[in-house]
Known about the structure:
The first copy, chain A, has helices at residues 3-18, 25-32, 36-39, 46-67, 86-102, 104-116, 121-148, 157-174, 180-197. By secondary structure, chain A is mostly helical. Chain A binds chain B through residues 16-19, 21-22, 111, 114-115, 118-119, 128, 132, 156, 158-159, 162-163, 165-167, 169-170, 173-174, 188-189, 192, 196, and chain B through 16-19, 21-22, 111, 114-115, 118-119, 128, 132, 156, 158-159, 162-163, 165-167, 169-170, 173-174, 188-189, 192, 196. The structure holds a DNA duplex.
Amino acid sequence: xxxxxxxxxxxxxxxxxxxxxxxxxxxxxxxxxxxxxxxxxxxxxxxxxxxxxxxxxxxxxxxxxxxxxxxxxxxxxxxxxxxxxxxxxxxxxxxxxxxxxxxxxxxxxxxxxxxxxxxxxxxxxxxxxxxxxxxxxxxxxxxxxxxxxxxxxxxxxxxxxxxxxxxxxxxxxxxxxxxxxxxxxxxxxxxxxxxxxxx
Amino acid sequence: xxxxxxxxxxxxxxxxxxxxxxxxxxxxxxxxxxxxxxxxxxxxxxxxxxxxxxxxxxxxxxxxxxxxxxxxxxxxxxxxxxxxxxxxxxxxxxxxxxxxxxxxxxxxxxxxxxxxxxxxxxxxxxxxxxxxxxxxxxxxxxxxxxxxxxxxxxxxxxxxxxxxxxxxxxxxxxxxxxxxxxxxxxxxxxxxxxxxxxx
DNA sequence: CTTGTAAACTAACACTTGTTAGTTTGGAGG
DNA sequence: CCTCCAAACTAACAAGTGTTAGTTTACAAG
Lengths: 199, 199
């Protein structure tokens, strides 16, 4: 790992616990093992470090959605979910969880969004698009599709989006690590969900 | 409002946007209209201001729960909810919402918990007790009771707690203000919930 | 071997931070 | 009117902040 990447790594870790403003460039430099002035060979200023973190993390998020066969606008290609079953929904939830909770960079990125959302309008917008409006919009489309194809009993797709997604959102905030307790709760949630809404 | 209360008020507002560390005692003093050294006539140090905020807000929370006929340990006296109906559940949700989202102090208190949770173990515990473990525990008890009395079809009370509470939790984070959109979403959620679980 | 350059370094700057010591003020109670 | 005292003030401190200028180092390309 080169110095620039190391700086990003250390900054991501620090910012995600103490917040951008509370971490000094000297803290970062010390942790990396260089003098603070050397940081400025790699970044224009402190803000540039932060911006680069956000940029890289967003790129990682987009890549993840592509891997899950969803394009950036969260408009899904739902043919992937043909033959939906409890296992398939469970895997969707597991994937989401592992990515945002288990992956150490994404966990830290999420924390930064949470900490900085109130003082930084750009961050607030990213956070809301990722975990509120965008997520619900996507899930609504998904359940509309699953209703049309007869896989689930769907009267109001947005209500199903809430019923399916909000417990996952809750668990994501409740648990820091993807452990057995989470697995159990996720499984229980999805089993219950399927029981409620199967045709 | 005396000077001490004014300091608390200003600090609550600032801390809830920028975080404890990013707000200087000079900022606070300037906003109150005194010199920074005068703050130390009212508080031992900066940390003392923060601690007093937490203490007062927690007192307000406890008082609220008492008003809602729930004691501090979140063990409910559920006889209040005799004759449960959609309106009653809706009112529970409205009350919760109005208190934590509409009340300006509580909204700010919540934000402080969110911002400071990762660097402050005490805050983390308060946050989790208030909005995760404690809340689910309480709701589970509630639905167990509503199942026993035949008001709802309850197989697994904890699942109902999740189904009822997590959308409320989600909406609380999604919306800053208690507006018509929230009212609509809350009503829709609870109507759907009742339809799903009525006997 | 020489040269060029990226990336480390030292040193310093102007400014902000939390906090303390000592002083002045203004109003209440005797 | 005098005394007392809470609560304001001025002034200063030591430490920490982001950033810049100028210098040295190490190594690859010619």
